[in-house]
Structures are given as C-alpha cells and as structure tokens.
Amino acid sequence: MTEVSLDDRGRFTLPKQFREEYGDRFQVVRLDDGLKLVPVAEDPLEALRDEFADVDKSADELRDDAREQALDEAGS
C-alpha cells in the first residue's frame, strides 16, 4: 500500500510505478467508504474491442441470453 498526500491546492501525485502501469488519466468514482481511481484508456473504443474480442455472439444474441437467464432466475 502506498500513501500519498494532498498539496495546498488539493492535488496529489501518483508514484511513477502506478503512472507507468495505469497511465495518467483516471475517472474518480465515489464509493460508500472512499474513492476509487479508474484508469481511462487512451482509446476507449479500442479498449472495448480488445476486452470483447473473444466474444463470438452478437449483441442481440447476448441480450436474448441475458433475458432468458433473468426469466429463469425469476422462476418464469
């Protein structure tokens, strides 16, 4: 775990190791117990393509599967 402090203008600097691993752009997400920094990809569309590259089904097929699963879990 690494501790960082805010300067007099409310800024903090991430250690170099984190910047090298995660980049230099983040979304700040408020949680019940604190904040979370979520890295923002340099090319968000490319990141989504990479994330779902191994998905063989279309969006319609995925939606239909999710609907069927939800109905099964609801007991219908």
Automatic annotation (TrEMBL):
Classification via SUPFAM superfamilies: AbrB/MazE/MraZ-like
SMART domains: SpoVT_AbrB
Domain SpoVT-AbrB: from-to ranges: 1-42
InterPro entries documented for this protein: MraZ_sf, SpoVT-AbrB_dom, SpoVT-AbrB_sf
Keywords carried by this UniProt record: DNA-binding
Molecular function GO labels: DNA binding
Name this polypeptide is given: AbrB/MazE/SpoVT family DNA-binding domain-containing protein
Organism: Halosimplex aquaticum
